[in-house]
Amino acid sequence: MSAVTWAVARRSLVLIPRLPSTFVPSMVMPIFFTIVFSEGFRGLANLPGFPARETVDWFVPMSAIMGAGFAGITLGMGVARDLEGGFYDRLLSSPAPRPSLITGSLMAAAARSLLPFALVMVVGVLMGASFAGGVVPSVGLLLVAATGVSMITAGWSVAIALRLKTQQSAPLMQVGFFLLMFLSTLQMPLNLLTGWLHDVARINPMTQVLDLARAGFLDLVSWGQVWPGLVALAGMLVVLVGFAARSLQKVIP
Amino acid sequence: MSALRQYGALSRRSIVNTIRQPAAIVPALVFPLIFLALTAAALDRSTDLPGFPRVDSFLQFAVATTIVQGSLFGAIAAGADMAKDIEGGFFERLVASPVARTSILVGRLAGAATLGFTQAWIYLGITSLFGLEVEGGAVAMVLISLVSAVVGAGIGSLAVAFGLRTGSNEAVQGAFPLLFVLLFFSSAFFPRTLMEGWFAGVAGANPISHLIEGLRSLVITGLDAGELLNALAVAAGLLVLGIAAAAAALRGRLKAAHG
């Protein structure tokens, strides 16, 4: 890992206390989702075929993934701000290796996702999450899924920022992630989805990622539940980081 | 110009302003519909749960929520437009003219009410294409759109009050998540009969629950005077509260403008 990668990542992390308004929503939203979904949809646990004994076990992993995704999106917003302010031009005219600008953002995204992740875990414990597969496998697999998603959304949002070069592209970054999540098993398991959403969720790789994230919260973990999620994470990472790299090529003078 | 003509001119300006800003109005119309499509498809099987109200589909259960959600989105535009008038200097010019002060508010509220009324018909029309049946028939649809207009004016007046106080479009837009929170802590997306503990208590105390349940009853049960009165009471309460807040904010802004 190059020194520039670390420097880009460090700069993003230093901005958290300096510009809290850009980071706080990614911490508050997953806590809000945990409480509202787990309590508001509590009755879903009584539905035959619903895989969790309590809705908190179903919605805590989903909320952690949402928080990680939003933490990743803040990286794209930061790049857009730097492009508008001219700082990114100075980075591009420096002898810094170009890939470091992307890998630095990915590192920062993974680091930024840890805070909302920890907060959701605390709220989950307070709300009675059962960690049915054991605490270490449950939290470990969710952590892998969350950091992976934060890097995926960082790739997506950085690519959008580099293409559109404006902070006004932030809603597009968020809507893209929202749709990816809502068109998966975010609210209900695949066996309880019907119609067009069932067909879309079945081929949406985020469904596999959510299966990975939830594996330890619902039951004992098996390798069969883990590998599809890892493959989906790797696939999305390759595609979206590739998209960011191609977008970076377009802004290099 | 008589006060009545001033009301008319500023109301027309507000409505035309809304129509001419597709970037502001399209998300207010489209996002609630997308959210409805996603939740109706995801939660359709939840209607099988014992204790769930008798409905044809989750779409029938949730359409009232979409109408209120649309009113909330649209109302934010009213507050943002007021803030933009202040930021752009139009408000100063309006205050310097001999126009009746009340027309400044009436114009904005007429715009928000018209938007709420129109949105309700658009949502009912589009969801009808996807199989929605309104048990209360055409009368219920008219009542729903009228309540939606009052909600639009009520929330719109609160947003206008906020716009007048802050004079910042960004601040008004930033206040939107607060309304979203209110919606989620209600029976907007799931029936209260299936909630438990403190959340059921919060949802029961949340006036938005009673507003949505009143409108929902017109869709899933038919004409029910008691439920309708509940919805009307909440909508009217919002309007009275909003007008009082907007009038106080306008007085404060006028006092500041006159030094």
What is the strand and helix layout of this fold?
The complex is a heterodimer of chains A (253) and B (259).
Chain A: H1 3-18, H2 20-40, H3 55-85, H4 87-93, H5 98-112, H6 114-126, H7 135-164, H8 170-182, H9 195-203, H10 205-218, H11 223-251
Helix pairs in contact in A: 1-5, 2-3, 2-6, 3-5, 3-6, 3-7, 3-8, 3-10, 5-7, 7-8, 7-10, 7-11, 10-11
Chain B: H1 3-19, H2 22-42, H3 58-88, H4 90-96, H5 101-129, H6 137-166, H7 169-184, H8 197-205, H9 207-220, H10 225-257
Helix pairs in contact in B: 1-5, 2-3, 3-5, 3-6, 3-7, 3-9, 5-6, 6-10, 9-10
Description:
The complex is a heterodimer of chains A (253) and B (259). Chain A has 253 residues and is mainly alpha-helical. In chain A, 78% of the residues lie in helices and 0% in strands. Chain A has helices at residues 3-18, 20-40, 55-85, 87-93, 98-112, 114-126, 135-164, 170-182, 195-203, 205-218, 223-251. The longest helix of chain A is centred in the first third of the chain and has 31 residues, at 55-85. With 259 residues, chain B is mostly helical. Chain B has one domain. Chain B is built from 10 helices and no strands. Chain B is elongated. The chains are: A mainly alpha (253), B mainly alpha (259). Chain A binds chain B through residues 32, 36, 39-44, 46-47, 182-183, 186-188, 192-197, and chain B through 38-39, 41-46, 48-52, 181, 184-185, 189-191, 194-199, 203.
